[in-house]
Amino acid sequence: MSPAQAGEKTWFGQPRGLTVLFLTNMWEQFSYYGMRALLVYYMTKELMFGQAHASLVYGFYTATAYFTPIFGGVIADRYLGKRRAILIGGSVMALGHFMMTFEPLFYAALVTIALGNGLFLPSLPSQIDDLYKNGDPRVGWAYNVYYVGVNIGGFMAPLICGTLGELYGWHWGFGVAGVGMVLGLLIYIWGQRYLPEQSRQSSARSIDPLAGSFSKFPRDVLLLLGAIALSVVVFRGAYEQVGNTVALWADSGVDRQVGSGEVPMTWFQSLNPLLVMVMTPFLLTWWRQRAERGTREQPARKMATGALIVGSAYLMLGGLEALGGPTHWLWLVGFFVIFTFGELYILPTGLGLFARLAPAGLGATTVALWYLTIFAGSLSAGVVGTLWSRMDHAVYFFLLAALAAIAALLLRAISPMEQRVEDRQRETD
Known about the structure:
Layout: E1 10-11, E2 14-15, H1 16-46, H2 51-80, H3 82-99, H4 106-123, H5 139-168, H6 170-190, H7 197-200, H8 219-239, H9 245-252, E3 254-255, E4 257-258, E5 261-262, H10 271-292, H11 299-323, E6 327-328, H12 329-356, H13 363-385, H14 393-413, H15 415-428
């Protein structure tokens, strides 16, 4: 047992606060993925948007939801504190989800959710490091554990919100997404006693007035974060198609027949988070065993491996489309297995790297920079998605594979820089 664990009350071998953050995040992600599972279908089938227009709206919404956190992170660090930012942001998001149940409020609802997300999203994961003492080895895997919470919510959302939306009306699905957000807020309020004092109380007086200034970032850290961000922007141009053009392909290009029935199209979006939950424990065990043997894989190289694996998943779809004819749904399951394996290498690793490189007093702001990267990547994904109706679908999937491969090359190129920065930080800790 590490010194950090001595005398500590834990749940599942981790600080109790991690479970609180895990469950809060799980229900927030339930609301987000529940709405996202319905969004493209709602626009194309109910609002009668053209595919290209729906793709741009989808891309702009998902991008904006990750752009507002850069401002929300600064506001949380300098003025509100993480606790108030989460409570205010979550309440605004819940309001936005309930607004989605009224068709005339469609665009206003999207804006409302994005604004609330700006306060909520960077403030929650930035509290993870507060739970651990310096040198606690558990922090390296805490973000993968936290990421499972993302995917439990993401797994339940299409099954519950998607099924209600398809069978009883889209607005029922949107309403249940709002209920999920409220549940997340209630769990966070209940669990305050398990979070560090600095995460529960804050005021503008207790925070450095220069907290939002980039001058506090060492130059090499800024360069590294910028290089990783560029790589992830390219990667997400391919990655984000799972909820966009891949969802459209599941509707029109996949044989979903099982016996005399048909698998609902939204259910396939539950495969990715389900596989995250199944694969994560095995990956964590493998990585921990390698660490105990003294084998440490650099984060940038690990992320590059993940990008290549995701690219191979899209390469498979391109090959299937080139063969012609409807694709059996089992191939779509196989795609998600490969895709998710790669995702686990790159996305939790990137989030954890950004959080570890945060200067003192800028935890939420630095995590917000990660979400700013997702913003830019989501915008690029929306633009890439417009090509779906303009080019052969096999060629389109090959294009997505190429984007993931380019991201992998960029990440491998910056690996030496990442090694130097991490070594310097370990020496100064």
